[in-house]
UniProtKB/TrEMBL annotation:
It comes from the Bacteria. This is Flagellar assembly factor FliW. GO terms for biological process: bacterial-type flagellum assembly; regulation of translation. PANTHER family: FLAGELLAR ASSEMBLY FACTOR FLIW. The keyword Cytoplasm applies. Keywords: Bacterial flagellum biogenesis, Cytoplasm, Translation regulation. It holds the Pfam family FliW.
């Protein structure tokens, strides 16, 4: 397992096992052996390949997570775990990518990047998710891949229900 290989490498070379980063939620400590490797990075951030997921403090929200780049502390995204049973993403559209990346169904997690916007003249904050470019995570191998769905039914700014 990737986690064991990383832990062994860290131990053998006396490399720090954690990294402390000043995140959107304050200082957080991340374990290198829990990192998620994204071989192709994210759209627009191809050179950033090592990320970690962090929970928001419970008083903020447990519906969202922070996708934090471990090699560039300034790069982080709010993500929403995708509910597979919602059916918003059609299986026939994501199954080819799952097969190509050899992700077993029991190891699949999907997150969607969240955008926060404040419309002009409005105090409310509008939250949307990017359905066009979901992130597939292989939880067993700790790898992730952002895929790009071509169908127009998948909106870049799909509103989150209140």
């Amino acid at each position: 397992m990737l986690e064991d290989v990383i832990r062994q490498e860290l131990d053998q070379n006396n490399i720090p096992q954690t990294i402390k980063i000043a995140t959107l939620m304050g200082d957080r400590e991340f374990r290198w052996d829990k990192a998620i490797y994204m071989p192709a990075g994210l759209s627009g951030f191809a050179d950033n390949n090592i990320f970690a997921l962090a929970n928001f403090p419970s008083e903020i929200s447990n519906c969202f997570k922070l996708l934090q780049c471990l090699t560039d502390p300034e790069l982080a995204f709010i993500v929403a775990p995708y509910n597979m049973e919602s059916g918003i993403l059609a299986a026939e559209d994501i199954d080819p990518a799952i097969t190509i990346h050899n992700i077993a169904p029991e190891n699949l997690a999907i997150v969607l990047i969240v955008t926060l916007q404040k419309p002009d003249g409005d105090d409310a904050i509008e939250m949307t998710v990017n359905l066009r470019a979901p992130i597939l995570i292989d939880t067993a191998r700790q790898t992730a891949f952002q895929i790009h769905l071509k169908k127009p039914q998948y909106d870049y700014r799909h509103p989150l229900s209140a």
